[in-house]
């Protein structure tokens, strides 16, 4: 089983004036994709990750792709914030670690053509951008894909496509 699933992260009301972007790759040569600056309201990030059966765990999925970090059973991806997202004049340099737990093989099979969504507080207790692994992470829920609208912003890498060959979609 080698397939892909669509993910959407909604950051609720992050502090304004800060750049955010998905981290593609690991270590120093990573790339920030789909960069957006926070303003009023929420930020939304959509991406696709590969899935495969987890060895020895029949009901669980493992995740693959340029965004995916961590070990099998504890996979995640990062949203880079402030200086980590390339904003040189930011007072913030953080990463938000989004867990990929709680998506079963059965749920992924039922969700064909739909999107797994999670909603995360965008502002931390210190008034700055939320960072690290969200303590209030409630998991992933299946949602319909976002409808295209004129207010939606679409960004792609220089190749015009995301790391898995499909355009990544970022929007407010």
Summarize the structure.
This protein has 172 residues and is mainly beta. Helix content is 3%, strand content 41%.
SSE ordering: EEEEEEEHEEE
Sheet with most strands = 6 strands, mixed
Based on CA atoms alone, the radius of gyration comes out at 15 Å
Low-confidence stretches at least 5 residues in length (pLDDT < 50)?
149-172
Mean pLDDT across every amino acid position: 86
- The percent range for strand residues is 35-45%
Question: What is the total tally of β strands?
Answer: 10
The level of helicity is under 10%
Secondary-structure-based class equals mainly beta
> How many helical elements?
1
Q: What's the multimeric state?
A: single chain
Ends apart, CA distance between termini? 33 Å
**Looking at the structure, what is the overall shape?**
globular
Number of domains: 1
Please render the helix and strand layout as text.
Layout: E1 2-12, E2 19-24, E3 31-37, E4 43-54, E5 57-64, E6 76-82, E7 93-99, H1 105-110, E8 115-121, E9 141-143, E10 170-171
Parallel strand pairs: 1-8
Antiparallel strand pairs: 1-4, 2-3, 2-6, 4-5, 4-10, 6-7, 8-9
Note down, in words, how this protein is organized:
The structure is a single chain. The protein has 172 residues and is mainly beta. The chain has one domain. The protein contains one helix and ten strands. The strands form two sheets. Strands 1, 4, 5, 8, 9 and 10 form a six-stranded mixed sheet that branches. It has a four-stranded antiparallel sheet with strand order 3-2-6-7, with no helix packed on it. The longest helix is centred in the middle third of the chain and has 6 residues, at 105-110. The chain is globular, with a radius of gyration of 15 Å. The relative contact order is 0.25.
């Amino acid at each position: 089983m080698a397939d892909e699933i669509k993910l959407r992260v909604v950051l609720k009301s992050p502090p304004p004036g800060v750049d955010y972007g998905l981290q593609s790759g690991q270590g120093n040569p990573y790339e920030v994709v789909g960069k957006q600056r926070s303003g009023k309201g929420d930020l939304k990030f959509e991406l696709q990750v590969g899935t495969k059966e987890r060895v020895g765990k029949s009901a669980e999925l493992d995740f693959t792709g340029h965004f995916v970090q961590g070990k099998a059973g504890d996979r995640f991806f990062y949203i880079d914030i402030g200086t980590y997202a390339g904003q040189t004049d930011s007072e913030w340099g953080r990463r938000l670690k989004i867990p990929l737990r709680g998506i079963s093989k059965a749920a992924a099979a039922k969700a064909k053509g739909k999107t797994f969504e999670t909603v995360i507080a965008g502002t931390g207790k210190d008034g700055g951008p939320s960072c690290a692994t969200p303590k209030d992470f409630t998991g992933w829920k299946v949602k319909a894909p976002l409808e295209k609208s004129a207010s939606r912003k679409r960004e792609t890498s220089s190749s015009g496509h995301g790391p898995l060959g499909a355009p990544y979609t970022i929007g407010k």
